[in-house]
Design goal:
Layout lengths: L3 H17 L10 H11 L7 E2 L2 E2 L9 H4 L2 H10 L16 H13 L4
Antiparallel strand pairs: 1-2
């Protein structure tokens, strides 16, 4: 059973994520917006942070789009974990349109 401290940390992180994430525009159906929605709803913030929001269990993704090409990010998501990578990253079951959207969002992360 989780300790009270652990439960409180989860509640606090969840509240911070909700407060920090701006509501998506109702009519924004761009690949980046869809990818951001996937990132938020698939639990990625449970391990990764963006702009200081999220967990620090895994590397920050605040500038991942500046560090890696779109092709590399797509390959990473398709083949997670690639050879030699940390094996804690779970394989994410994504349909091709979801993979493209998440790649677009991650590629857009260049400055925080």
């Amino acid at each position: 059973m989780a300790s009270l401290g652990t439960v409180m940390r989860v509640v606090i992180v969840g509240a911070l994520l909700l407060a920090a994430a701006p509501a998506p525009a109702q009519d924004d159906d761009s690949p980046v917006a869809r990818g951001r929605h996937l990132f938020e709803t698939r639990g990625c913030y449970g391990c990764h942070a963006i702009g200081g929001v999220g967990a620090t269990t895994a590397p920050s993704l605040s500038r991942v789009g500046a560090k890696y090409s779109r092709e590399y990010l797509a390959r990473w998501l398709r083949e997670t974990p690639p050879r030699g990578a940390v094996e804690h990253m779970p394989r994410i079951p994504l349909a091709e349109p979801e993979l493209e959207a998440l790649t677009a969002y991650l590629s857009s992360l260049r400055e925080f």
